[in-house]
């Protein structure tokens, strides 16, 4: 008998309901072939790939679908506008169940040249503040898979012992509750807000406090065991995809800071690339 693995991106709804501008992956390693005239070379590209998530109640996108589609660009064919257009269309189609309408792919490799743009705003004073705050994120999908393994192990160990006492259950959990553990990662929230010209201060401390309150799992510096235990409890009570974190920030900051532009990055412990999401406005 094959167990059906839980997929919380399909079975659970997000606690915070907000559409997201972009959700996907950042920093994927991908070999690409550049062939133009006499020049032909395979290059190491760093690729970002995202789709929009307009449905507020959809908990998360299917990042593995995007990853597999990008593999089509690494099959020995020269990179061309047509192949990129096909991949973008396939990315949108692969997320029809999320109502995605837009997709984007960004590539960086050795031949890429970036030049700054100059923008002049005459006679207008604008002031924006940006802060980056670190926090911890524990994957809800990984947590569900871990819980299933622990449940199965418990049933296998005690299927002939239906009259267990709470003390016996607690004893088993003490030794076996970490049979499987969900993967967590250090994460970053970049938040930008527009300050009022008449503001008396920059409001950076208040902004940081609001961000840490919204994500609920700010990283710690020097901690004692009791602090680390409390931090573990916070992570267990605040499981979040990158989509969840972005929505928490957008909704949480709207109360204290007004409109804010949010970019979050989960520095993956399972994958060699990062999960990212953008949303809001400032």
**CATH uppermost class of the largest domain:** Alpha Beta
Largest sheet composition: 7 strands, antiparallel
Please state the CA-atom Rg, rounded to the nearest Å: 23 Å
**How many H/I helices?**
8
Largest beta sheet: what is the strand line-up?
3-2-1-7-6-5-4
Percentage beta strand: 25-35%
Unreliable runs = none
Extended strand count: 7
- Reading the helices and strands in chain order gives HEEHHEEHHEHHHEE
Distance between the termini: 52 Å
- Averaged pLDDT, please? 85
Total domain modules: 3
CATH topology descriptor of the largest domain: Urate Oxidase
What is the architecture of the largest domain at the second tier of CATH? Roll
Structure, explained:
The chain is of the alpha+beta class and about 280 residues long. It has 3 domains: about 10-110, Roll (Urate Oxidase); about 120-140 and about 185-280, Roll (Urate Oxidase), CATH 3.10.270; about 140-180. The chain is built from 8 helices and 7 strands, in the order αββααββααβαααββ. The chain has helices spanning about 10, 65-70, 80-95, 140-160, 165-175, 205-215, 225-235, 240-255; strands at about 20-35, 40-55, 105-110, 125-140, 185-195, 260-265, 275-280. A 7-stranded antiparallel beta sheet has the order 3-2-1-7-6-5-4. Strand 1 (about 20-35) and strand 2 (about 40-55) form a beta hairpin. It is globular and about 75 Å long. The mean pLDDT is about 85.
């Amino acid at each position: 008998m094959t167990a059906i693995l839980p997929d919380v991106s399909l079975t659970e709804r997000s606690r915070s309901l907000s559409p997201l501008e972009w959700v996907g992956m950042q920093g994927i390693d991908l070999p690409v072939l550049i062939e133009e005239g006499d020049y032909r070379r395979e290059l190491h590209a760093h690729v970002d790939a995202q789709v929009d998530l307009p449905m507020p109640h959809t908990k998360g996108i299917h990042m593995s679908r995007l990853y597999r589609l990008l593999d089509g660009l690494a099959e020995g064919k020269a990179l061309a506008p047509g192949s990129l257009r096909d991949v973008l269309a396939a990315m949108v189609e692969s997320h029809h169940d999320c109502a995605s309408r837009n997709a984007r792919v960004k590539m960086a490799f050795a031949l890429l040249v970036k030049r700054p743009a100059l923008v002049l705003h005459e006679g207008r004073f604008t002031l924006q503040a940006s802060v980056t705050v670190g926090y911890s994120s524990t994957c809800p999908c990984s947590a569900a898979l871990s819980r299933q393994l622990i449940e199965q192990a418990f049933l296998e160990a005690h299927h002939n012992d239906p009259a267990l006492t709470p003390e016996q259950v607690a004893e088993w959990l003490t030794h076996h509750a970490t049979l499987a553990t969900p993967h967590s990662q250090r994460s970053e929230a970049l938040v930008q807000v527009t300050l009022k010209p008449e503001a008396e201060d920059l409001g950076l401390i208040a902004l940081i406090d609001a961000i840490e309150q919204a994500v609920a799992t700010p990283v710690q510096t020097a901690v004692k065991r009791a602090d680390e235990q409390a931090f573990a409890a916070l992570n267990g009570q605040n499981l979040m995809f990158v989509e969840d974190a972005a929505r928490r920030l957008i909704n949480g900051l709207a109360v204290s800071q007004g409109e804010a532009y949010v970019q979050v990055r989960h520095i993956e412990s399972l994958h060699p690339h990062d999960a990212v999401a953008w949303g809001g406005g400032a």
